[in-house]
Amino acid sequence: MDNEPRNKLSAAGWLTLVVLLGLFGASFWYAAKVWTAMSGVHMSGWGWTFMILGVVVTIALGGGLMALVFYSSRHDMDR
Question: Where are the domains of the chain?
Fold first, then answer.
């Protein structure tokens, strides 16, 4: 038997990793560009309140859906 770990990436795995890192870099660059372009825009207290509320609700919804996925997987409901 071969006792060496088999965690080496194939050529397709490396290509996928490079493409995903490129997409991440492009999205980060675009986000930074938009953030600096909107530096002069004023947002009221209500705007900040609803923006924070939207972020919190989105994260809670994502967390709740992931909890349901794990729950259904643990209780063999994924048939």
Answer: 8-41, 42-79
Based on its alpha-carbon atoms, the radius of gyration of the chain, rounded to whole angstroms, reads: 21
Query: What residues contact 9, with CB distance under 8 A and at least 6 apart?
Result: 17
Task: In whole angstroms, give the CA distance from residue 25 to residue 20.
Answer: 9
SS3 51: helix
Give me the pLDDT at residue 8, please.
86
State the average pLDDT for the chain. 91
**CA separation for the pair 18, 27 (Å, rounded):** 14
Band the pLDDT of 1: cuts 50, 70, 90: low
Q: Which of 37, 38, 54 is nearest to 46 (CA)?
A: 54
Distance, CA of 6 to chain centre: 27
